[in-house]
């Protein structure tokens, strides 16, 4: 996965920023939004952000 890829254009949030938020303790879409701002402007990326949150939470919890 390209961690530099922007997932939220409105807030310039990358995959890596989502990963960092999850690995810092965020476990829900809402918690990631509070930390990164992803998906809080137009909402177009919400499905992608949710998928990333789910992926990184599972990855984090399996380590």
Fold and architecture overview:
By secondary structure, the protein is mostly helical. Helices cover 52% and strands 8% of the residues. It has a two-stranded antiparallel ribbon. Strand 1 and strand 2 form a beta hairpin. The radius of gyration is 10 Å and the shape is globular. The two termini are 18 Å apart. The model has no long low-confidence stretch (mean pLDDT 97).
Concise description?
The protein has helices at residues 15-23, 29-36, 46-61; strands spanning 6-8, 13-14. The protein is mostly helical.
Task: Give the arrangement of secondary structure elements.
Layout: E1 6-8, E2 13-14, H1 15-23, H2 29-36, H3 46-61
Antiparallel strand pairs: 1-2
Strand content: 5-15%
Alpha carbon gyration radius: 10 Å
Cα shape: globular
String of helices and strands: EEHHH
Mean pLDDT: 97
For the biggest sheet, the summary is: 2 strands, antiparallel
Low-confidence stretches: none
User: Roughly what percent helix?
Assistant: 40-55%
Distance between the termini: 18 Å
Number of helices: 3
Provide keyphrases for this structure.
63 residues; 3 helices; single chain; 2 strands; mainly alpha; two-stranded antiparallel ribbon
